[in-house]
Amino acid sequence: MAVDSCQACGGSRLEPFYELRNIPVHSCLMVDSREAALDFPRGDLELVFCEDCGFIQNRLFDPAKENYSPDYEETQAFSPRFMRFVDEICADQDRKYRLAGKTVLEIGCGKGEFLLRLCETTGCRGIGIDPGVRPERLSSPALERITFVRDFYGPKYAHLAADYVCCRHTLEHIQPVHEFVTLVREAIGPREDTVVFFELPDMKRVLDELAFWDIYYEHCSYFTAGSLARLFRATRFEVEHLYRAYGDQYLMLEGRPAAAATRARLPLEDDLAATRARVHRFREGIGQRLDALRRDLERWRRAGRRVAVWGSGSKAVSYLTTLGLGEEIAAVVDINPHKWGKYLAGTGHEIVSPDRLADIRPEVVVIMNPIYTEEIRGDLDARGLTPELVPL
Ligand SMILES: [Zn+2]
């Protein structure tokens, strides 16, 4: 059932600008066989831009198709680069909000690594809620101070009082975003000292870089700094900090509940006209971008060069399915051992460990997230491999 109003502001002036048909509805769910991966449930995507608030959503998203469970393997915690980033966030948040002895609620805590790190480094207590949480994988004395709940966050958890509420890489998976942020606000109630911290992908970069691999079914909601701040102000939060992190890939918002917005708007918020222009440039340019990448792959194929893709997360599924790639890719590699021997939804590629590349000997490695290029170069060097690296 297609949505015909903006899930952030309720507006109805929605401009379509990008379409994908028949794409896998999940990209991080572990699949045990090639057949099941090829047969993976599919759905359609039509991104629309809200002329009133700048929010971008997949109007064809059907939440009934989604199935988050402990088999969901989204963690980036096997990457030292990523864990450095997690440590930086923990230190920064503790500097600002002095979390020792306080209670932190993490909505959508994934496998729980961030919450655990926050509790370890700041001395806070934690409550983590996620349908895919796997506390048995974690070990640390700080686990004593953490309660994990394997579920979706919802009204039944509104009684959980916390001094600090964080929600990282979750809002983009939620369709009724206004309803969701309102629920968070209502759960906080009159406790106006509560801090909220949200982290999610920044659509500005995706539009500017024509980064179509960051657009996929699981992400039904796409924000820029402006549309995110507007949603929080509309749901009675004061936005105190709004900034980008991780090579400008992520948007970070920190705020507090407020009866009415009082502070002046922050510089990043005024992006509605610029976002509209970016959406138009994306619509004009995406066809050429896809053609150029297909030409690269064709050139490598004709030259008989073996191509591997490094990274088997959502970006890889989107890159491969959007370009319609199959046998052109000799291997899909991941450093997360929980993914080895599993198959990529939609394309059926087996996910292999970096060690397997010693046999496959790729001549080109396409890197799904450029931020890991140096880490990957080191992993390849250690195995005596020197393929051409092509960061997306
Ligand atoms: Zn809107």
Keywords, separated by commas or semicolons:
single chain; 392 residues; alpha/beta; Rossmann fold; seven-stranded mixed β-sheet; five-stranded parallel β-sheet; 16 strands; 22% strand; binds zinc ion
What does the model show?
By secondary structure, the chain is of the alpha/beta class. The chain has a domain at 303-391: 3-Layer(aba) Sandwich (Rossmann fold), CATH 3.40.50.720. 29% of the residues lie in helices and 22% in strands. The protein has 10 helices and 16 strands. The chain has helices at 34-38, 80-97, 113-122, 177-188, 203-208, 225-234, 272-302, 314-322, 357-360, 373-381; strands at residues 14-24, 42-50, 56-58, 103-107, 125-129, 146-149, 164-168, 195-201, 221-222, 237-245, 250-257, 307-310, 331-333, 351-352, 364-367, 388-391. The strands form 3 sheets. Strands 6-5-4-7-8-11-10 form a 7-stranded mixed beta sheet, with helices on both faces. Strands 14-13-12-15-16 form a 5-stranded parallel beta sheet. The protein has a 4-stranded antiparallel beta sheet with strand order 1-2-3-9, covered by helices on one side. β15 (364-367), α10 (373-381) and β16 form a beta-alpha-beta unit. The protein is globular, with a radius of gyration of 21 Å. The mean pLDDT is 93. The site of zinc ion has 8 residues, from loops.
